[in-house]
Design a protein that fits this description.
This protein has 338 residues and is α+β, with helices and mostly antiparallel strands. It has three domains: 5-79, Winged helix-like DNA-binding domain superfamily/Winged helix DNA-binding domain (Arc Repressor Mutant, subunit A); 87-128 and 225-337, GAF domain (Beta-Lactamase, 2-Layer Sandwich), CATH 3.30.450; 135-221, Heat-inducible transcription repressor hrca homolog, domain 3 (Enolase-like, domain 1, 2-Layer Sandwich). The chain has helices at residues 5-21, 27-34, 40-52, 69-79, 87-98, 104-119, 172-186, 191-195, 203-221, 232-236, 246-254, 259-264, 316-333, and strands at residues 56-57, 66-67, 122-126, 129-130, 135-142, 147-154, 158-165, 227-230, 274-277, 289-298, 302-311. The strands form three sheets. Strands 3, 4, 8, 9, 10 and 11 form a six-stranded antiparallel beta sheet that branches. It has a three-stranded antiparallel beta sheet with strand order 5-6-7, with helices on one face. The longest helix is centred in the middle third of the chain and has 19 residues, at 203-221. It starts with a helix and ends in a 5-residue tail after the last helix.
Length: 338
Amino acid sequence: MQVAGRREAILRIIVEDYVSGTMPVASKSITDKHGLKVSPATIRNDMAHLEQEGYIARPHHSAGSIPTAKAYRYYVESIVKDIELPLAEQYMMYELLKEAKEEIEEWLKLAAALLARFVHNIAIITYPKATQCRLKHLDLVALQDFIALLVIVLYEAKVRQQILSFNERITQDELTKLANKLTSAYAGMGSSEILANTSELSFEEERVTGCLIDMMATEDKLEYGRPYIEGLRLMLDQPEFADSPRTLKILEVLEKEDWLRNVICQELGKGKVKVIIGEENPEVALQDLSVVIGQYGIPDKASGVIGVLGPKRMDYARAISSLNCLSTLLSESITEYL
């Protein structure tokens, strides 16, 4: 995808002016504001070529021009190298995140709210997910004579629960002894390691262990942790969504459990940001939007997804730099929760 030098400069101006001003960009505006030292006729001629090549379009014949998805793609690929948030804002993000509470849920909610504030769009951060979850400890709580609640705590700061039944009456004291014995035997292990250490178990131990393995295996199959979403109002306050019937469809997609997996469609590499523009998105209801998405975490241990969702007319430079900065901070901080 190539654009000649002056036309590239004009295309960049159109994208940036439209992003900041939300109004179609006219040739006269380019001449008056940006001092390209060429005649208005030359700029109009360059804009005509850009329109023919599919980079810009005019909503009305007499109106100025707006960027197409092709223009946004060209723009994004031209800015991704060496783009950083200003140092003062990096420091502000660091200081605000440092104030987070110890609970990982509160920490991630704050991070999502912080990103939404920086980009004025929807921010998405998923709970960090381990490559393979490991057991920290388990508890058994008597509910009835034959029924107990199995509570497992994983090293990734996750708690899972499941009810299980026994063939014989079992007291709380017996459940506590059983839980302590199995915790001592399995602590630090993944589901496959526990499965390999299941010989010579009593019926009750086998019952709890089987349930434990199933719960952990289910957790391992999940591609991403649950997402925290902030900034919906910030996105919907923008001109594209004023009285728009698309809003309800967008909300319906965000309520689906698998929407993020459908959008990403492929593995993300740590340190690499993926930008999905308009119709590149497999979710039809989101094809008027763009997604900037990446990953944070510790290689081969635990990782999560961090992203921005907004109109195609989003400030890509700010979204990418804010996401990169917060991804680095989250990756550095996550070790204490593992």
